[in-house]
């Protein structure tokens, strides 16, 4: 699904030098690369503050802690996304309110949020899924109307851009009150281990996030609030500095691979290729098809028989996960879009090292399946 080894060979010289510098100065925790990387990512994202942390899930939890939400408060989350958004809501003794997604973009359906807002609703976690932005213009208007915080889960779309009706362009993760991201090895901006970050234009929130991620302290051994221990290590920051310099190039390579998939598979009977929203660029963290007529699992097995990997993101809606189904609130709303997607989506290999030969083999195999 992702060829990290070949990508490393492309960057080997830069990575070796980055590692050498860290090993030479020996500051493996909170070394200079941490602060330099945060500044460089801040400049790339055009956001005032970037605070690195241990991983993307920590980033989501810290964001909820920074907003001072109280047990019983409600947080709106998408029904079709990775479990971590709802998980941290439950972990904080908050109530996840699960809302359906759009059938074409797979992102949170903003039109379905308003009926779910109650006097207990305090925040929305919106995931920019598979590489493109949710409809942030509509979402921010609704959030302003009900005075709700907005947390952007930008783990899959770092570098994607959202264009507003007035022509303003902002990067995903910099629009709401807080943005979160993950540097897991398969993500658009990826290290060689775990890592994450939060971003914001709010100075007060940035200071609180920084304190929470460091045991609730501004000054060492002076703990003002309850926090956690969540930090990016220096070596990973050094690697991320290298990757950040290539991020636009890597995003373009994914887009080029997606275009080749589109040319071969678009409008073919039995499948629907990914939709590009007019207001967002698409980075194709995943290239996800929708397979008609209940043939998804059969196609997956056929691809496997031809030594082609594929993945199902995601096999269950968030509210149907055993760990949370008893807690999640879904009053008077249908989640039929998410349920349908869970039974029909299939993601194909897509990464920075794909070439025409690989894509041709994959697409020809898929077309063979539908014509056999």
Strand-residue fraction?
15-25%
The whole-number mean of residue pLDDT values reads 96
Along the chain, the helix and strand elements come as HHEHEHEEHEEEEEHEEHHEEHHEH
For the record, the CATH class of the largest domain is Alpha Beta
Q: Quickly count the helices.
A: 11
Helix content: 25-40%
Oligomer: single chain
Contiguous uncertain segments of 5+ residues: none
Biggest β-sheet description:
7 strands, mixed
From the alpha carbons, calculate the radius of gyration and give it in angstroms.
21 Å
Judged by helices, strands and strand pairing, the structural class is alpha/beta
Q: What count of domains describes the coordinates?
A: 2
What is the terminal separation in angstroms? Answer: 25 Å
What would the principal axes of the Cα set say about the shape? Answer: globular
Provide a compact summary of the structure.
38% of the residues lie in helices and 16% in strands. The protein contains eleven helices and 14 strands.
């Amino acid at each position: 699904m992702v060829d990290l080894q070949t990508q490393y060979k492309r960057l080997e010289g830069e990575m070796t030098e980055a590692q050498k510098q860290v090993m030479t100065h020996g500051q493996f925790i909170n070394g200079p690369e941490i602060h330099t990387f945060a500044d460089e990512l801040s400049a790339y994202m055009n956001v005032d503050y970037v605070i690195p942390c241990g991983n993307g899930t920590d980033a989501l939890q810290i964001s909820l802690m920074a907003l001072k939400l109280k047990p019983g408060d409600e947080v709106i989350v998408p029904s079709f996304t990775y479990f971590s958004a709802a998980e941290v809501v439950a972990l904080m003794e908050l109530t996840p309110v699960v809302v359906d997604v759009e059938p074409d973009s797979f992102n949170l359906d903003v039109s379905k949020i308003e009926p779910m807002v109650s006097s207990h609703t305090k925040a929305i976690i919106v995931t920019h899924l598979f590489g493109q932005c949710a409809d942030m213009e509509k979402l921010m208007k609704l959030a302003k109307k009900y005075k709700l915080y907005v947390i952007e889960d930008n783990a899959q779309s770092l570098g994607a851009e959202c264009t507003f009706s007035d022509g303003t362009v902002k990067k995903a993760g910099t629009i709401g009150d807080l943005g979160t991201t993950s540097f897991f090895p398969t993500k658009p901006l990826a290290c060689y281990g775990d890592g994450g970050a939060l971003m914001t234009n709010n100075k007060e929130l940035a200071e609180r996030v920084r304190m929470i991620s460091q045991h609730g302290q501004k000054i060492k051994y002076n703990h003002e609030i309850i926090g956690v221990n969540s930090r990016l290590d220096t070596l990973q920051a050094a690697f991320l500095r290298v990757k950040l310099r290539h991020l636009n190039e890597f995003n373009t390579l994914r887009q080029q691979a997606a275009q080749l998939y589109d040319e071969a598979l678009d409008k073919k009977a039995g499948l629907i290729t990914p939709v590009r929203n007019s207001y967002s660029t698409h980075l194709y963290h995943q290239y996800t098809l929708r397979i008609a007529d209940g043939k998804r699992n059969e196609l997956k097995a056929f691809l496997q028989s031809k030594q082609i990997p594929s993945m199902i993101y995601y096999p269950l809606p968030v509210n149907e996960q055993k760990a949370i189904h008893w807690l999640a609130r879904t009053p008077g709303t249908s989640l039929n879009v998410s349920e349908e997607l869970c039974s029909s989506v299939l993601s194909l290999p897509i990464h920075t090292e794909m070439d025409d030969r690989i894509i041709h083999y994959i697409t020809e195999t898929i077309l063979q399946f539908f014509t056999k």
